[in-house]
Design goal:
184 residues; alpha+beta; Ribosomal Protein S5, domain 2; 2 domains; five-stranded mixed β-sheet; 5 strands; elongated
């Protein structure tokens, strides 16, 4: 009888050894799968970062006039178009003269249909905004091609028009308008 017990324990130990080996293999396989999954996740993160780093290439210029500020972005790739505050040019500047003013810097360089242009304008009136847009586009074009400087400068689109509204002074109705004079 004692010999039978020994064989049973041998069987048990061999079965136990096999199960230990199987669990070790399973653990190794799990680790390998986890490593592969982590590598894939890291690769996806790197790809996302590269996408964030490499958006559409654009040149940005800030234009100002009176209290209006325009941020013009000229995209070299993509659909060719013109948007101001997410509206079309004709929609934002309904007056033809304002449209011509806004596009003047592109017109002098003969680049009307070469770029996708996105502009954000704030402050001022429509005329000041149109001139700010012209100034911003001229600055962005200069970044795109420094050879444009001579023609843009000659046209006067690179200079910021510094004329601003004068402040009101105390004792006067406006900046210089005095109250009406009374004899008695």
């Amino acid at each position: 009888m004692p010999t039978v017990k020994k064989t049973k324990t041998k069987k048990k130990t061999t079965v136990a050894k096999k199960t230990v080996k199987k669990t070790k293999k399973v653990k190794k396989e799990k680790k390998e799968v986890e490593k592969k999954v982590k590598k894939k996740i890291e690769e996806k993160k790197i790809e996302e970062k590269e996408k964030e780093i490499k958006p559409d290439r654009y040149y940005e210029g800030i234009g100002r006039r009176k209290t209006a500020v325009a941020r013009a972005r000229i995209f070299t790739r993509g659909e060719k178009g013109f948007s101001i505050n997410k509206k079309s040019l004709e929609e934002y500047f309904p007056i033809h003269e304002l449209q011509k003013t806004a596009l003047a810097s592109l017109d002098t360089m003969k680049c009307l249909d070469k770029f996708k242009i996105s502009i954000i304008v704030r402050g001022g009136g429509l005329n000041a905004q149109a001139e700010a847009v012209r100034h911003g586009i001229a600055r962005a074009l200069l970044l795109f091609n420094p050879d444009f400087r001579k023609r843009l400068k000659k046209a006067g689109f690179l200079k910021r028009d510094s004329r601003m509204r004068e402040r009101k002074k105390p004792g006067l109705k406006r900046a210089r308008r005095a109250p009406q004079w009374k004899k008695r």
